[in-house]
Amino acid sequence: MKPKRRPFLKLAVALAMSLPAIAAAQQTSAKTPRIGLLAWWPCGMPYASETSEFGMFMQGLHDLGYTLHELSFECRSASKQDSRLAAAAGDLAQLPVDVIVTSSQPAAHAAQAATDAIPIVTIISGDPVAAGLASSLAKPRGNLTGVTYYATELAAKRLQLLMEAIPGLATVGVLANPVVSYLPFETDTKQAARHLGVALSLQQVSEPGELDVAFSRMKADGAQAALVLPDLMLADQSSRIAALAIEHHLPIMAWGSWYVADGCLMAYSADYGVMQHRLAYYVDRILKGTKPGELPIEQPTKFDLSVNLKTAKALGIVLPQTVLLMADEVIE
Amino acid sequence: MRRSIQLQAAPMRRSLFRKYFLAFFAAVIVPLAISGIGDAWFGYRDQRAMLSALLRVEATSAAGKIQSFLDGIKDQLGWTVQQAWTADAEAYHRLDALRVMRLAPAIASITLVDDVGVERLHVSRIDLNRMEGGSDRSGDPAVLGVRSNGTWFGPVTFRDGSEPFMTMAMAGNRKAGGIVVAEINLKLVWTVVSEIRVGNRGRAFVLDRTGRLIAHPDISKVLQGTDEKTAAALTRLRDEIAAAGGEATTARNAENEPVVTAMAAIPNLGWTVFVEQAQAEAFAPLYASLWRTGGLLLAAAIFASALAYWLARRMTGPIRLLQEGTEKIGAGQFEHRIDIATGDEFERLADRFNEMAQELAVSRDRSERIARLKRFLAPQVAELVEKSGDESVLAGQRAEVVAVFCDLRGFTAFSAHAEPEEIMQVLREYYEALGTIITRYEATPTNFAADGLMVLVNAPVPCADPALRAVEMAIDMQDAIQRLIAEWRLLGHAIGFGIGLAMGWATVGRIGYEARVDYTAIGHVVNLASRLCSSAADQQILVDHAVAQSVRGEILLVALGPRQLKGFDEQIPAWKVGTRSGRSNGVQEPKGLNG
Question: Which ipTM value was assigned to this complex?
Fold first, then answer.
């Protein structure tokens, strides 16, 4: 959702150099496939920015042999507000575009509400079948397909890894955005806590401004560590969360590696870059005529554990050898 | 001319040109065609065999790659069953398992079971890890399988009906090391399969025992699941190839494209690796070679026809010239020459024809000349004149000639009342009889006027004793005509015949114009002979003094004394020749010319 500081430099240069060509192509060619990007972050320079929401997707198109003369892009942004996704999706559907690409499940829902004809390619963080986005993973049948990294066990897995990193955990704070409460993360987390025998201090945060209060409350509840549940608003606030975590002396287990890069202790997740890159494959197949309903929704094969040893040091934590052995990405 | 037209019109069943053309063409094209078709056929077989071998190698190599992919996982898993399950070994085992999972991304989870069949450790990428309180796994098929075989491969399962997984289990070299049961995410076989390239668009895919796809370059085909129909079709294809002894066969793939397919088995898994290549691509070199052969044959055919045309032309050209030449010569164009300069037998043949034409021309000229001379010369004389090659004898000159005149008596009266047929009949018999005699005596007939005829003797060709020859001729003429007259009288025609002869100098030569030339004599002697003839009665031959002097002693003459002749002032003495019957008493044969 927010892969940061990826080595996009090559693509960025290539795109920057061909921007006039993109503009020309968009004006002249009626046959150029139009790809609608439904963004949560502001569009700005959506596909040339290093911190772009769709950077790896663009790289994926590039790797499949597309040049920017062959494609045109339309970007509509929700400006960091889930509530504005519907309007942005509606805009894209009105244009119309040949395919809508999103990077999150709320955006996918918005897109599917806006159209049932235009193919939608997305990263699904929840269960696509339970959410009614697809009839099965093998054959979605609708107009939506993409990559899902959902597994009920994943919330429990994060909790277990956190417990392994910090032995003797009794209470764990949880940051969740109530806007996405229709997704099963909170339920899964509660179930996992019961299973693993830890208490939760669940904090609903719907605005970045509420983070300070949430941390204070968790600390007040006696939390020795905290879990951040998947949400775009929280993803956007990764640096702030990291800073608050150090301040409140709370080791954080997050759901994306960029949290660790921004200073949180650890994260366990599928590789977002790989998933975004994979979206390009779906777009390619759809542009070549395959129906989205016939493209199976794929699941990642690998989950990466990231740890930030600087943060561990700041928090005075010595990570056990097993955690270090499992870590795919270590920031020192 | 008529003959030559008939020759041309006669239909030729097969022209020589066509025969030669076909023979030369066949001589060039047949060996080429045989060689080309042979090449194409053997090329096709070689190509098929090579393609089959290539695809089998690819399939075997793909199977080997997949096998070594699984062997790699197996080797990694081997580390987890090295240590015996002693009391403090759990931490080591855990580190081993985590390390192996880091090294082998395809392993989704590892479960370690100790030597008595109790689960001691479970490490997973998604599930919760379990470390204590493990259940008894001794009845697990994986554990049972390992105990009997050493290594066990479970069936392929499709998680949520989509992602393919397989359980693999193995034991260490010691019983104390226990058993490792690992879940393998088969989606990673894709990385192996997708790298296999056969030509440009050929690909490899893997089937499990039941005919379901477990690896395919297009991963969505695997994730979609294999429906019954496709599985049945693929199983059938597998059986077909196995029945064909493993040779690559042509078939239609899932997209209904014609492909060439070979396969290789991964025996301990029961998997089959297929390698397929689009027929169009696989046979492209073959088609290219066929096109090449076709093109060469076409070029050869064009070359052969050009060569055959040229050769046939060379052969039949002179023959046609000869044919045309002989037709023209046959039609009488003797001046035609056949122009062939090939330097071979044809040229010699043409030269012979040209010589023949020249000789024919000479011969024709001669016979034309003779024919012309024969009109006024006896045939023998004409031949003589022609042979001498000199017609100057016919030029105007003074010569001593014997002029013989004869005509029928009473012919005018006869012709006045007789039918034209009768008149012509009489004249024909008359002249036939006279002509035979004139020819025999080599005399020269000059003027014809109805029943009157003048004959010259001793001109243009002189002869010995012309008077005697003329008289004897006259006697024969009189005899012959009298016999005819006897017949005519029976028919009621009152006709007689008289002859007059005179000898003397006269001017002789050809007179008339080109198309109508006669040889004649002009002079006193001619008039005299004419008058003597007029004066002669039927059956009489009258001669003048000069003739009488010449034949005296040879022929019996009766002097009739001088008589008055029309156109002559003086009386002219005349002699009557005694008839042969009167002279020699019925001897019919004339005397010898010198007699």
Answer: 0.85
**Taking each helix axis from N to C terminus, what angle separates B379-388 and B345-374, rounded to the nearest 10 degrees?**
130
Cα separation, A38 vs A32, whole angstroms: 19
Phi, psi torsion values for B138, nearest 5 degrees: -65, -20
Which pairing describes strands A225-228 and A252-254: parallel, antiparallel, or unpaired?
parallel
Q: Residue B13: which pLDDT band, with cuts at 50, 70 and 90? A: low
Write the burial class of residue B420 (CB in 10 Å: 0-12 exposed, 13-18 middle, 19+ buried). exposed
Residues B348-362 as b/e (b if ≥16 CB within 10 A, e otherwise) read ebbeebbeebeeebe
For residue A157, list chain B residues with Cβ-Cβ distance below 8 A. Answer: 124, 126-128
> Which chain A residues have a beta carbon less than 8 Å from that of B99?
325
Residue A308 has, within 13 A of its CA and on its CB side, a CA count of 23
Q: Please judge whether B162 and A301 are an interchain contact, meaning their C-beta atoms are less than 8 angstroms apart.
A: no
* CA–CA separation, B104 and B126 (whole Å): 15
How far is the alpha carbon of B130 from chain A, nearest alpha carbon, in Å?
Answer: 10
Contact B125 A156 (CB under 8 A): no
Confidence grade of residue B514 (pLDDT, cut at 50, 70, 90): low
What are the CB-based long-range contacts (under 8 Å, 24+) for A323-329? A323/A161, A323/A164, A323/A165, A323/A266, A325/B95, A325/B98, A325/B99, A325/B102, A326/A161, A326/B98, A326/B102, A327/A266, A328/A304, A328/B102, A329/A257, A329/A260, A329/A304, A329/A305
For A296, which of B124, B126, B224 is closest by C-beta distance? B224
Residue in A137, A156, A325 closest to B161 by CB:
A137
Coil, strand, or helix at residue B155? strand
Which of B99, B127, B223 has its CB closest to that of A298? B223
- Measured between CA atoms, the residue of chain B closest to residue A157 is B128
